[in-house]
Design a protein that fits this description.
By secondary structure, this protein is α/β, with parallel strands linked by helices. Helices cover 42% and strands 17% of the residues. Its EC number is 2.7.2.11.
């Protein structure tokens, strides 16, 4: 495992996913601006080191919900759409302002499932990402919830940004995906309910035993993903040729610890499958 961690230092194209719960204050579900500032500073520093970095950021619906004064997650689809439309604009405004303070460019990329299922759209998305990265911009990706939330009933969305971040990794040929979560990594069972659950530092192969450890265990009032979603993301990322790390997003410094090869989080070893059919894990 030490060699696997050491190899992370040489990764050149990195996707980082941060969930809503990692962006918000736990007690108020409002944006944690100090944490976002540290996240942006970390991303810019990665870029300045000569590596490509893409951020997949949740939070649009949660930010929109707060803007219109809702106390809990909206359940009606039109309300979700409205929250997403309001919140995405506000969230990007915050990102743009902080990126500008570090003399850096941020670019918004909103994706739908059709972007990936259609081969031409997928190629166009790859070309867009490549050009943005050449221009030294940092793409900030989210699902286009304003459109896609209606399609949830038809199961026509990514379902969560864990899977979306893995799809982005596959599309752009990333060699590392970091999932910032509300948990330290993968456990043999849900540690929220089982105190005897054991932490797993490294996963060489995603077999049935490992996949059975997935739990829909998100305990956040703003997030949507659980460990099951992260393991689907691990399949997409590792089969596409990227290593993946799940680590705790409560400490943004964990990003740097991962990139320094420190033993942080759970690392999933790349197991690239030639001619891997990405659509098979999206449908």
């Amino acid at each position: 495992m030490e060699n696997l961690r050491e190899a992370i230092k040489g990764k050149k194209r990195i996707v980082i996913k941060i969930g809503s719960s990692s962006l918000m204050h736990e007690n108020t579900d409002r944006l944690n601006l100090l944490k976002i500032e540290k996240l942006v500073r970390t991303l810019v520093d990665i870029k300045n080191s000569g590596r490509d970095v893409v951020l997949v950021s949740s939070g649009a619906i949660a930010v929109g919900r707060n803007a219109i004064g809702l106390d809990c997650k909206p359940s009606e689809l039109p309300v979700k759409q409205a929250c997403a439309a309001i919140g995405q604009a506000r969230l990007m405004m915050v990102y743009q302002k902080i990126f500008a303070e570090y003399n850096s460019l941020a670019a918004q990329v909103l994706m739908t499932k059709n972007t990936v299922l259609n081969k031409t759209n997928r190629l166009n998305a790859r070309n867009t990402f490549d050009e943005l990265l050449k221009l030294h911009a940092i793409p900030i990706v989210n699902e286009n919830d304003t459109i896609s939330t209606y399609e949830i009933e038809q199961l026509n969305t990514f379902g969560d940004n864990d899977r979306l971040s893995a799809i982005v990794s596959a599309i752009i040929g990333a060699d590392l995906l970091i999932l910032l979560s509300d948990i330290d990594g993968l456990y043999t069972d849900d540690p929220n309910s089982n105190p005897d659950a054991k932490f797993i530092e490294c996963v060489d192969t995603l077999d049935d035993t490992t996949l059975d450890m997935g739990k829909d265990s998100s305990k956040s009032s703003v997030g949507t993903g659980g460990m099951a979603a992260k393991l689907v993301a691990a399949k997409i990322a590792t089969y596409s040729g990227a290593d993946m790390v799940i680590t705790n997003g409560n400490d943004i410094e964990n990003i740097n610890r991962v990139l320094k090869g420190e033993s942080v989080g759970t690392i999933f070893k790349s197991n690239k499958i030639e001619n891997f059919n990405l659509n098979s894990l999206i449908d």
